[in-house]
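Incident log entry.

Two folding requests arrived from the same account within the same minute. Monitoring flagged them as a possible duplicate submission, but the sequences differ. Recording both here for audit purposes.

Request one:
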Amino acid sequence: MSNLINRSFFQDIRKILNKARQKTYAAINFAMVEAYWQIGKRIVEEEQAGKERADYGSYLIKRLSKELSMEFGKGFSIANLKNFRQFFLVFPDFEKSYTLCSQLSWSHLRLIMRVDNPKAREYYLKEAADQD
C-alpha cells in the first residue's frame, strides 16, 4: 500500500476547506459591515440628540474612540468612527442596500461611500458586487 494520497481525493478536500473558509470570511465580513453601520447610526443619533444637525465641536467621537480602543483594541480610531458615521449617512436605509453591501468588503464600501453622486454610487456598488 502506498503512502501517497490519491491526488483527486486531496483536491476535493482542498476545495471543501477553501469553500468553508470563503463562507466564513463572507459571514464575518457582513457581520462587521453591519456592526459598522449600526455604530454609525448610534453616533449620528447621539451627536444630534434629536436636532437636525450635530453641535459643532462635539467630542463624542474622540471619547468613544478612546473607550472602544481600551476595551476592543485596534480598529476604533477617530478616523474609523467617522467612517462608520459616514457609512450610515450615505446608506441610511441599510436594508435597501443590504444585498449589495453584504457582498462587498469594508474597503470597497469605504471607497464607494466617498462618491458624491447617489446614482454613480449605486452603479459602483452593483459593479463591485458583480466583480467579486
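Request two (distinct sequence, not a duplicate):
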Amino acid sequence: MKSYIQISTTTETKEQAQKIAQHLVEQKLAACVQISGPMESTYRWKGNVETAQEWLCAIKTRASLFKKVEAAIKKLHSYETPEIIAVPVVQGTEDYLRWIDDSLS
C-alpha cells in the first residue's frame, strides 16, 4: 500500500517559493504545492533569536519521493539549513489520493 506525506518548507521570498513549487510539480515530485504567506517566523539561529518574514510551501507527494524532494529543495533553496519536514497523511479520500498518484505518473 502506498503512503503519502505532506512536506513543509519555508522560503525567504514568494518568488523562491514559486520556483520550488513549479520545479517539484513539473518534475512530478509533487502533485500540488500550496504557497501561504507572508507569515512571521521567530527562531533561534547561530545563538541569536531572529524574526523574519517567510512563505510556507505545503507539498503533497508520496513518501517514497521524500529523498528526491529533499534534494530538489536543497538545490533550489537559499537557506543554509532549510526546513524540510514531512508528516504522514493518515487518511485521505480515495479520489484525492488517486489524484496524487495520477499526477505523479
